[in-house]
């Protein structure tokens, strides 16, 4: 089900699912109907995770009213982290790189700043962060994570000397 909603150019857990081709991605991007369905699927999964897409233009997110209940599910079942990684990669494939940034920052904030998703922290740092296609935005997110990671000396996702100088 999920691989049909968020197809990738790489093999996933379902060995029968064929990876997307570049031609298929271009065809998807040209179809207004396909892109609207993609956004609806994204919003559906966000709601499942307790998140709301506040602004379709920017990709801004916030907690849904049922966030506490849904975050319990995220904390309890780590298979969701694989799904989130897949969604993030697909957002990049479909031209929604700015959505990637907001979703990753949302999870970094919830894990490192607010402490509401402790069991998602490792995936957010090891996987979610590195799905972001924009090198500049990825660096900004690494710096953001470093600012809130404790103990800061144990941060292994970027060189400390460069993080100290980052602007």
Automatic annotation (TrEMBL):
Similarity annotation: Belongs to the opioid growth factor receptor family.
Pfam families: OGFr_N
Originating organism: Trogon melanurus (Black-tailed trogon)
Domain of life: Eukaryota
Protein name stated in the entry: OGFR factor
InterPro entries reported in the protein's UniProt record: OGF_rcpt (IPR006757), OGFr (IPR039574)
Opioid growth factor receptor (OGFr) conserved domain ranges (all copies): 5-163
GO terms under cellular component: membrane
GO molecular function list: opioid growth factor receptor activity
Signal sequence, start to end: none
């Amino acid at each position: 089900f999920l691989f049909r909603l968020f197809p990738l150019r790489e093999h996933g857990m379902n060995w029968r699912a064929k990876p997307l081709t570049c031609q298929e991605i271009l065809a998807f991007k040209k179809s207004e109907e396909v892109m609207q369905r993609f956004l609806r699927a994204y919003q559906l999964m966000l709601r499942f995770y307790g998140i709301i897409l506040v602004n379709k233009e920017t990709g801004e997110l916030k907690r849904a009213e049922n966030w506490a209940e849904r975050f319990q599910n995220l904390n309890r079942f780590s298979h969701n982290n694989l799904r989130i990684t897949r969604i993030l990669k697909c957002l990049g494939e479909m031209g929604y790189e700015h959505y990637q940034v907001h979703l990753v920052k949302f999870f970094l904030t919830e894990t490192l700043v607010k402490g509401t998703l402790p069991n998602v922290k490792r995936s957010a740092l090891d996987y979610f962060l590195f799905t972001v296609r924009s090198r500049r935005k990825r660096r900004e997110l690494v710096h953001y994570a470093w600012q809130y990671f404790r103990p800061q000396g144990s941060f292994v996702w970027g060189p400390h000397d460069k993080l100290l100088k980052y602007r």
